[in-house]
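User: Teach me something about this protein's shape.
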Amino acid sequence: MYYANRLFLIFVTLFISDFVYSQAADIDVKADTLVIDSEKPQFTINGAFRVHYKDEFYNETRKKEGGEFGFDLFGLVVNASYKKFKVMADMRFMPASSGGTMPKEGWIGYDFDNGDDIQVGLIQDPFGNLDYNSYSWFLGIGYALGFEGKYSMGTKYHHKGKTWDWQAAFMKNAMESFTNDPALRQNQWSASVVGDNKEINQVSGQLVYKLKTTHFSHKIGASGQFGQLYNFEENKMGSRNAFALHYHMDYKNLGIKAEVYKYQFNPKGKNSEYVDMASFGYTYQVVSKADVYALSAKYSIPFKGKSLNEIAFYSEYGYLGKKYNLNATHMLTNGVLIRILDGIYTYVEYVAGYNHPFLGGSQASLYNEFDNKWHARLQCNIGYYF
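Assistant: First, the predicted structure itself:
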């Protein structure tokens, strides 16, 4: 009865955040109208405005209040092109408690005659299922680990063949602000290593085989990355690496995404079993070596009405298998997406976590155990995308 009351409250409140997790495949939904290779300069502006409701069942104060409802984000995406050159910038304006104003992505690019392109700037790391292994607004466990929705400063070449798709990138560093001040370095859209260590000189690569039949679309891929971790307190260089296998299938209204990857952070510091990571103004600890398994599924029901366009149900599970004989972290998300007027996206989600720092856990839940309990929240995000 309690959960039913909360659902009723959400839908009454406009039919209808916590910081770190936020659906990033959002503003780009309608940002694909730019004409490339035009003899005249092209320019478009897209954006989004979002509000958010959440009820944290593990937070006694919030339960008594009946949850919270507030401003989530205002974002602008600017695209411009002239002949084969193009420019893209994605800025997010959020409350100070979520990190304030920050860029998500931004680069200068060039399109080659064969369809390939190159980007230089704040670019997405070609690792795992792109753009995300998730269908949810909250995103999966890989986001907090820095392996989903990851953007860094560097350059990337993308070959876009009919059967084979591959990318190669060099990331000089994360979205740094020319400082080692921890209070400033944590204000990043993507999860990155902070504290006494910083990500530098990373090489990433991805290879994807694409297969299409009458009804099915398959993408089978492998990704790898190798980089350095510079500890500026001790002036020593560590390393990091990750390798992933991933699969994406679409069949009519059904979508499935799956990936498995192994990663290692080898920092040179006082404790090598974890690294400090941060995003959206929040710092937390992540185990330095682990195996990750993630599976997402979505079933979409399209509508031809003028108001209601789509209802999609999705379910996602993530598992973080930590080394050093530490207890694992689990994450489970079930939700529904309601799209109306082809521009209003409403995500209603029930998210549960075990040893999870953003679901009732402590800062160290992605490293050591917290209280060996499942914690959950009910949330609803409404966004208008233009």
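Now, about its shape. The helical segments are 2-12, 60-65, 141-145, 182-185. The radius of gyration is 21 Å. If you'd like, I can walk through any region in more detail.
User: That's plenty for now, thanks!
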